Task: inverse folding
């Protein structure tokens, strides 16, 4: 499996990013109520091969492999350190039904037609170019067997909070993503994907489309606060070059805003909720 040009807004080879994604995987799966969304227990029993796109350190695949020993779970990511780490985790947990490889999902996927029962993707806005989405969904359709399921989870926001600095950071992240060719315009300046996903699924020919919402509260003294504080601390530090290079803020003003964000998140009355949406649909059965 070969990689190609990296469109990811962060550095996929960074140890800090690997650690951040490891914690984020766990938070997302818990908030979503498990690895499969809108899927009945009877349908899960029919799954034999599933794929995670942009698997990062492999959390989703490893969860599937552990919970469902009869399912072969595979993950792909553009970052070699991510893939090596995920394979090491699979070996240490003796999960022989989990495997990982280096591949860029902005390019045609190196899998045969009809290889998977389910294809999963989470937070692809950070690396999937806007113009690639129709081709990407066509590739997902190709590698799904007839009746197979696609599930994509994307952020509705990056946290609705009581911190003006954190909210400004989130706004800049969406604006910077838009300028980098990621996501779809919302209004005049910001980017997102959730408003477009249902239509993109329909245009790609998917049936039985469902929209499922999720939320993580990370207010002060909640269980998720520590993980999401660390998440934003690392993510926005790594996003600094993107913000400056796209002209959203000066280096000096970024440092001031960044420190304000950290202070405001430590306030005893800080409140925050992160909202996400999963869109799922099935490939039509063969005619």
Result:
């Amino acid at each position: 499996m070969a990689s190609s040009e990296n469109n990811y807004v962060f550095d996929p080879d960074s140890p800090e990013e690997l650690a951040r994604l490891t914690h984020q995987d766990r938070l997302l799966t818990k908030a979503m109520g498990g690895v499969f969304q809108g899927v009945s227990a009877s349908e899960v029993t029919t799954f034999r091969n599933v794929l995670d796109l942009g698997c990062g350190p492999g959390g989703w695949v490893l969860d599937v492999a552990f919970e469902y020993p009869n399912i072969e779970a595979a993950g792909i990511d553009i970052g070699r350190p991510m893939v090596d780490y995920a394979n090491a985790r699979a070996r240490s947990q003796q999960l022989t039904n989990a495997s990982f490889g280096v591949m860029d999902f902005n390019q045609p996927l190196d899998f045969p037609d009809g290889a998977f029962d389910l294809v999963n993707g989470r937070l692809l806005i950070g690396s999937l170019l806007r113009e690639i989405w129709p081709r990407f969904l066509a590739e997902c359709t190709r590698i799904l067997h007839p009746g197979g399921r696609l599930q994509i989870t994307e952020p509705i926001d990056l946290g609705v909070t009581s911190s003006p600095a954190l909210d400004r950071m989130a706004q800049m992240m969406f604006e910077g993503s838009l300028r980098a060719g990621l996501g779809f315009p919302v209004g005049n300046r910001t980017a997102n994907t959730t408003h477009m996903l249902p239509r993109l699924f329909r245009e790609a020919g998917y049936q039985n489309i469902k929209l499922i919402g999720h939320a993580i509260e990370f207010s002060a003294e909640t269980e998720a606060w520590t993980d999401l504080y660390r998440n934003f601390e690392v993510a926005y530090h790594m996003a600094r070059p993107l913000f400056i290079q796209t002209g959203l803020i000066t280096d000096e003003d970024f440092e001031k805003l960044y420190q304000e964000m950290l202070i405001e998140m430590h306030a005893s009355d800080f409140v925050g909720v992160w909202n996400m949406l999963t869109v799922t649909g099935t490939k039509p059965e063969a005619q």
About this structure: The chain has nine helices and ten strands. Strands lie at 49-53, 72-77, 98-102, 116-122, 144-155, 160-161, 184-186, 190-192, 207-217, 272-282.
